[in-house]
Amino acid sequence: MTDFDTSRQASAAARFGRVAVLMGGTSSEREVSLDSGRNVLAALRGLGIDAIALDGIPALNRALREASVDRVFNVLHGQHGGGEDGVVQGLLEAAGVPYTGSGVLGSALSMDKIRSKLVWLALGLPTPRHVAIRKGDDVRRAASLIGFPLIVKPACEGSSVGITRVFDENGLAEAVALAERYPGDLLMETLIRGGGEYTVGILAERALPSIRIVPAGEYYDYHAKYQAEDTRYLCPGLSGEDEQSLRQLALQAFQALDCRGWGRVDVMRDEAGRFWLLEVNTAPGMTSHSLVPKAAAELGLDFAELCLQVLETSVEEAP
């Protein structure tokens, strides 16, 4: 760290006040969120910031009533007790407390993959062909519209929860049954293959170097994301014009959903080299396996500096 960086960190406690690291909650991504939160909490405290842990929305609500926090670093993942669906953001804006990440609209749109796609399609941005499925809908008819191979997943979950790749009609019923375990509608979309899986972190309105994800197995599933030690992450994932095009597309997709501060955009590439937008994550993971820290490291930002820069966006983006 330079002398400037040291000086900036020394003044952090006064600038930010007491920071609540919001983690855990009751969504399907609770364990990942707790891991993220512990890492962020340790980093902020290491920078001399007065940081405390809050587990879930009820704990946050109590802290707001007691006026015991000045700012929130949100790493609460998911919906229905998570912090990515706009509920936490609305609560914090009503209380006048600044926070990291996107606002109410950006969070709600990004959490709902179906509505994200509608926005992107309206703007001419590429996303795989899809059908929204509600309970009772004819899934075979939907599959005939999409064509095999396809993906079935909950429309409002993250971390690869409830996702199945379906290659023929025989696997359809089981895939739908798995996705229906989670609240909300289902999403059926074309399975993009051939050119790899990519992610692009966004920090303070700029796109970080892309990462190409190369799992040891065939797919980048929950195990490959959070447990496996043999998943490879190539950063930057591309070079030259391809890399610039991917970063530009990711930033466009992020801003199209009214997102701000920081986040992550997940993209697939087909065998013809075309990019296809999958989703935006407005409170990305901050675990040892997470992708935004890996991309930041490519630019020379260690984990603590990344946390500090994310926290600084809450100053710029205060409601």
TrEMBL record:
UniProt entry keywords in alphabetical sequence: ATP-binding, Cell shape, Cell wall biogenesis/degradation, Cytoplasm, Ligase, Magnesium, Manganese, Metal-binding, Nucleotide-binding, Peptidoglycan synthesis
UniProt xrefs under Pfam families: Dala_Dala_lig_C (PF07478), Dala_Dala_lig_N (PF01820)
Pathway annotation: Cell wall biogenesis; peptidoglycan biosynthesis
Cellular component terms per the entry's GO annotation: cytosol
Catalytic activity, EC: 6.3.2.4
Biological-process GO terms, alphabetical: cell wall organization; peptidoglycan biosynthetic process; regulation of cell shape
Annotated Mg(2+) 2 binding sites: E279, N281
InterPro entries tied to this protein: ATP-grasp (IPR011761), ATP_grasp_subdomain_1 (IPR013815), D-Ala_lig_Van_CS (IPR000291), D_ala_D_ala (IPR005905), Dala_Dala_lig_C (IPR011095), Dala_Dala_lig_N (IPR011127), PreATP-grasp_dom_sf (IPR016185)
Catalytic activity as recorded in UniProt: 2 D-alanine + ATP = D-alanyl-D-alanine + ADP + phosphate + H(+)
Cofactor(s) needed for function: Mn(2+); Mg(2+)
Main location group: cytoplasm
Stored PANTHER family: D-ALANINE--D-ALANINE LIGASE, D-ALANINE--D-ALANINE LIGASE B
Family annotation (HAMAP family): Dala_Dala_lig
The name this protein goes by in its record: D-alanine--D-alanine ligase
UniProt gene name: ddl
